[in-house]
Write a structure and sequence with these properties.
Layout (H helix, E strand, L loop, with lengths): L2 H12 L11 E4 L7 E7 L2 H9 L4 E6 L13 H13 L2 E4 L2 H5 L5 H8 L3 E9 L2 E14 H12 L4 E4 L4 E7 L8 H6 L4 E4 L4 H10 L2 E4 L2 H20 L2 E4 L7
Parallel strand pairs: 2-3, 2-11, 3-4, 8-9, 9-10
Antiparallel strand pairs: 1-4, 5-6, 6-8, 7-10
Helix pairs in contact: 2-3, 5-9
Amino acid sequence: MKRSEVDVYLRKLLNSDSISDESLNGLQVEGKEDIEKIGFAVSASEETFLKAKKLGCDAVIVHHGLFWKSKGVEPIAQVFKKRLSILLNSDINLFAFHLPLDCHPQIGNNARAALDLGLGNIKPFCEYHGIMIGFKGNFLEPVPLKNFIKKVEDYYSHKAILMPFGKKEIKSVGIVSGGAPNEVKQAAAEGLDLYITGEPLEGVYYLAKELEINMACLGHYATERVGVLALKNHMETVLNLKTEFIELKNPL
């Protein structure tokens, strides 16, 4: 596919032009025009780009890109220069999609996880900057918290930091990937039995305890590789493009 065709397809699929975001979503760095192979990764980094080059990728699609509105104009120096140089010297395209890949109802980080973990009646959950970025669902019958946490750890391949301050048997679960610990307040307000996110926060431990809700943190990287993998599989299956997932094993 042509670079412009990939850009238009991704923007339409992820509805990125309609979502307000700190990330500059879409094509961030222009590379070669013809794209045959795409690398997928959670975050833009020197290691990501070097692996993409070694794998012969014409483009890389990441969740966390290089350019953010809040950072403004960043000097092209040091780490940033190294990262950009690899892309420019290798003529590799860089696409980034942040919130659009969190909130997508089929292949997003949260909807995909809710479905894979066996939740039913899945609906959008958790308002953030005017959009619903997470998803919630429930079980027909209560399940032991301990058993479900084991299933969640296996799914994300990451040990949970568990704050078991709610029911010992749960029916309802809300999921917001990445760094959303404070959104436990929205989960409690909706009466959910368990809230799952990526990053922990010291003060949220007491907040969850006082709200009497179960909360589990499974890692920022682990909870946000879900949507990247789902998008990879979509692009390979629907568009018949060659794809590679670039796994960096970030423990955070």
